[in-house]
Specification:
four-stranded antiparallel β-sheet, alpha+beta, 30% strand, 5 helices, 40% helix
């Protein structure tokens, strides 16, 4: 048994030894066969791919040929389009050039049109200016004609008034005002103003003093009252009223001959008398101060806060307001009769051309000379222009500006008593019984006569609140005169009892002027 087993094992091993090499050889051949098959398959796949690639390449080549043909066609089309575009551009350039030329021509035409339009406008403006100038010239001629008519009517009105034809004079005076006012004439032209003054009958007179009224002035603390003094020792306060004059005697003594006064801030009056005395009038008292060694005092001024300056013919005296005594005297080496005042000094004038200046700050005296001959009777200074006005004994007024330029104003026939500047106007009163107003802003100043009386006009005071001037004469009469032309015209119109007849209108005004009724 065992032997059989061993023999079996050995036989199996022999068989296995024979099989293994055969298997290995088989495996090697089989592997080589597979490799050949793989290579053949790979070659077959490559052949197929090559075939496909050749087919694709041929197709691509065909496509490329087709694309090239298309490209050639497109290039030809593009070239044709470029040629067409170039031709269109050329045509466009030609058209643009034509358009530019046309535009330039249009602009040139437009410029010509604008220039023609401007020329037409200039011609139109010139024609309009010439028409306006002609119209202004016509209106100016009409204005001048009507202003001349107003002056003529004023002159005729004054003549009729003096002849006693007062109703006709009033109608002509208002007609004069009407044309002057409507055509912007000067209502204060002498012919027009005098006719208004006469026809308005705007002066009222009161006999209130016994002596000549030497000075008057508004009260400092009550502009409805004014004070005047007389040569008969009267000091009278007056309440100004259009219809009446209420007077109150503050002091009266015929022993005194009052020539000037001033009022201090507390309302106290200081009045100087030619007799050599000064009277102090307070609220409830009166005191008299004799002035030693003074000859005929005639002016009084404030000197400083503590003193008053009293001026006599041969000396100056300072009155102490605190101690109530005259504590200083300054002698003069000549006889002074006139005193004026400027912003920085007092002017002392006697006979001849000599003038002494008393300087306000230093109190020093200096001597100067008047620039003209004759006897000065009054003088005044303009705060606005620094001009001086000198009134003379023969009625002449000399106006001297700050540069020394001199003018001569002639209208009064007798001694000038008072002068006063009010802005550009100079008021003058005279012993010839007249009050004149001069517009000194004009080189040729014609006077406006605001009052004519048969008495010497000694003093005056302006009352701007009521557009009036108050005057005092040598007989103690007070006269209030309205000086506003518009108010005078209103009074005349209210007084008219009828209108001008057509015949009167034709005679004094003319048929070429439309008829107007003046009576309200």
């Amino acid at each position: 048994m065992k032997r059989q087993y061993i023999v079996g094992v050995v036989a199996a091993l022999v068989l296995l030894g024979a099989i293994v090499p055969v298997g290995a050889l088989y495996y090697k051949e089989h592997k080589h066969t597979r490799q050949l098959e793989d290579q053949l398959r790979e070659l077959s796949e490559k052949e197929q791919r090559l075939t496909i690639e050749r087919s694709v390449s041929k197709q691509m080549e065909e496509i490329a040929y087709e694309q090239k043909a298309v490209s050639d066609e497109q290039r030809e089309a593009a070239n044709e389009q470029a040629r067409i575009a170039n031709e269109m551009k050329r045509q466009s350039d030609i058209e643009r050039q034509h358009a530019i030329i046309a535009q330039e021509n249009a602009m040139a035409s437009e410029q010509l049109a604008i220039m023609a339009s401007r020329k037409a406008e200039e011609q139109q403006e010139l024609a309009e200016r010439q028409r306006e100038q002609a119209e202004r010239a016509r209106r100016r001629a009409d204005t001048l004609s009507y202003q001349a008519l107003a002056r003529s009517l004023g002159s005729v009105s004054s003549t009729q008034w003096n002849l006693g034809n007062k109703e006709l004079a009033s109608l002509l005076a208002y007609a004069s005002y009407n044309f002057a006012h409507r055509y912007h004439g000067d209502l204060y032209q002498p012919n027009i103003y005098e006719s208004l003054m006469l026809a308005s009958n705007s002066s009222r007179q009161w006999s209130v003093g016994e002596g000549a009224i030497m000075k008057m002035g508004l009260r400092r603390n009550d502009q409805t009252h004014f004070v005047f003094i007389t040569t008969y020792g009267e000091v009278i306060s007056n309440d100004m009223n259009l219809q009446a004059l209420n007077s109150q005697v503050l002091f009266k003594d015929r022993h005194y001959d009052f020539r000037d006064f001033l009022e201090t801030a507390d309302g106290t009056l200081y009045v100087v008398s030619r007799t050599g005395d000064m009277v102090e009038i307070g609220k409830n008292y009166t005191k008299i101060y004799p002035i030693n060694k003074i000859l005929h005092p005639f002016r009084i001024f404030p000197w400083n806060t503590d003193h008053l300056l009293v001026i006599g013919e041969t000396s100056l005296h300072l009155f102490n307001l605190k101690t109530k005594v005259f504590d200083k005297m300054i002698p003069l080496n000549f006889h002074a009769s006139i005193v004026g005042r400027t912003s920085d000094h007092y002017l002392l004038i006697g006979k001849g051309k000599k003038i002494v200046k008393l300087h306000k700050n230093s109190g020093q005296l200096s001597v100067d000379e008047l620039p003209f001959n004759g006897q000065v009777t009054t003088c005044t200074h303009s705060e606005k222009t620094a001009a001086m006005a000198y009134g003379m004994a023969d009625g002449v007024i000399y106006l001297v500006d700050k540069n020394g330029k001199q003018r001569k104003l002639v209208a009064h026939r007798s001694r000038i008593s008072r002068l006063k500047f009010d802005d550009n106007r100079l008021y003058s009163t005279s012993y010839d019984g007249t009050v004149n107003v001069w517009d000194v802003s004009h080189e040729k100043a014609d006077p406006i006569r605001v009052l004519t009386t048969n008495r010497w006009v000694i003093s005056f005071s302006l009352e701007k609140r009521m557009n009036s001037i108050w005057t005092g004469d040598q007989s103690g009469n007070l006269t209030r005169t309205l000086i506003d032309a518009e108010q005078m015209a209103s009074l005349i119109r209210l007084s008219l009892k009828r209108n001008l007849t057509r015949e009167e209108w034709s005679q004094y005004i003319g048929d070429n002027v439309p008829y107007v009724k003046f009576k309200p």
